[in-house]
Design brief:
Elements lengths: L3 H12 L1 H5 L3 E7 L7 E5 L12 H8 L8 E7 L5 H8 L6 E4 L5 H13 L7 E5 L9 E4 L3 E4 L5 E3 H13 L15 E4 L9 H6 L2 E2 L1 E4 L2 E4 L20 H21 L8 H20 L10 E4 L1 H10 L10 H6 L8 E4 L17
Parallel strand pairs: 1-3, 1-4, 4-5, 5-6, 6-10
Antiparallel strand pairs: 2-3, 7-8, 7-9, 11-12, 13-14
Helix pairs in contact: 1-8, 1-9, 3-6
Length: 360
């Protein structure tokens, strides 16, 4: 009877993708001896937080998550003298979208953990927001340049590590139909000026830094970029944008989840069944075009990866596979494997304007 459940699920997921992107989960790691053992708590509202659970400094940092409407905030607490591995052990058990740590010494370990975590995860990907680290260069690591900010209500100067929860919560709850570029942080009155004689704001952004800047009294995010700077054939310039990576993550997670939950083990590996799954994916892509996640002017599609499937047969000694035409390869499914490939164009947000006006 085909794959109606997968088709319906894909339509529902596509229809809700912007809403879901605005309801991510922010995770915050604090070091606090108020509780002697490591653990974590989930919060939906600021009023859910017991003030006796954290030091005043950490409490203020956590409450910055609630300057936007949040879906959920997870706070991991470890003692101040604990190893970062204690926090990582808890982090491994949790599902979240963005994570930060509120201590300087935890910035690079968190980035290293996220890099390893994502390399081992085929479906869901995780993003760390850190500050001032020297080894980043990843689409999954956002590296904030400013070392401090000034609060609008108290004029207090706050180190960036204690302000990261605000940025993590913002990114976790920002819908996919807009980017964080030029987002105004109304709770700030000033931020550290990161420009120098040698380095302009543009240069720092090109080096993979997320920068805040003072725009005539408004504190804004200069450009929504991650720390990726090494461009390859598989990690392109587009993937330096936070909004592009967010779209990639959700699309990957949707397709992987539907395949794992509703396809694996439930259908014979026959060409017709593969085509039904491909048709469901392509229907999902069409829905994403309507939601302006994918470019409707582009041929967004998935299909059988003919060359990978051909190579699988060649690798076990079927030398005649070299002469099969594309249709023959597609119909010669290989053992339990489904070889697919896709080609999509994710829409970026409107951020740059070039407007030449002629004068007579």
């Amino acid at each position: 009877m085909g794959l109606p459940v997968i088709e319906i699920n894909f339509k529902q997921k596509a229809g809700s993708i912007i809403e879901r992107s605005a309801r991510g989960i922010a995770c915050v790691i604090v070091r606090d001896d108020t509780n002697s053992t490591a653990g974590y708590k989930r919060y939906k509202y600021e009023t859910d937080i017991k003030t006796t659970d954290y030091s005043a400094d950490n409490l203020a940092a956590i409450k910055r998550c609630f300057l936007v409407a949040v879906n959920e905030v997870i706070v991991i607490n470890v003692p101040t003298e604990a190893e970062f591995s204690d926090a990582a052990a808890i982090l491994t058990m949790l599902k979240y979208n963005y994570v930060c740590a509120c201590e300087v010494d935890d910035q690079q370990p968190l980035a290293n953990y996220i890099r390893t975590k994502n390399s081992n995860s085929k479906g869901k990907k995780y993003i760390a927001v850190v500050t001032g680290i020297t080894t980043a260069d990843s689409m999954y690591i956002i590296n904030v340049k400013n070392a401090k900010v000034t609060l609008a209500d108290t004029s207090e100067i706050v180190p960036m590590v204690k302000y990261l929860p605000r940025l993590v919560s913002l990114l976790a709850n920002l819908p996919m139909n807009r980017s964080c570029t030029y987002y105004t942080l109304t709770d700030l009155v000033d931020c550290e000026d990161v420009e120098t004689v040698e380095k302009t704001l543009d240069m720092l952004i090109d080096e993979g830094w997320l920068c805040l800047f003072n725009d005539d009294g408004d504190i804004r995010i200069a450009r929504g970029v991650n720390s990726l700077v090494t461009i390859t054939s598989t990690e392109t310039e587009d993937m330096q944008k936070i909004i592009i990576v967010e779209s990639m993550n959700m699309i990957r997670e949707d397709i992987y989840g539907e395949y794992k939950n509703n396809y694996v083990g439930k259908y014979k590996n026959h060409y017709d069944n593969q085509c039904l799954f491909i048709s469901a994916v392509n229907g999902y892509f069409r829905q994403l075009q309507l939601a302006e996640i994918l470019d409707p002017e582009y041929d967004n599609h998935s299909t059988i990866d003919v060359e990978s499937q051909r190579q699988a047969w060649l690798d076990i000694g079927r030398t005649d596979a070299a002469d099969w035409n594309a249709d023959k390869v597609k119909k010669m499914t290989f053992k339990s494997y489904v070889f697919l490939q896709g080609d999509i164009k994710i829409l970026d947000a409107t951020e740059d304007l070039k407007f030449d006006i002629g004068m007579q």
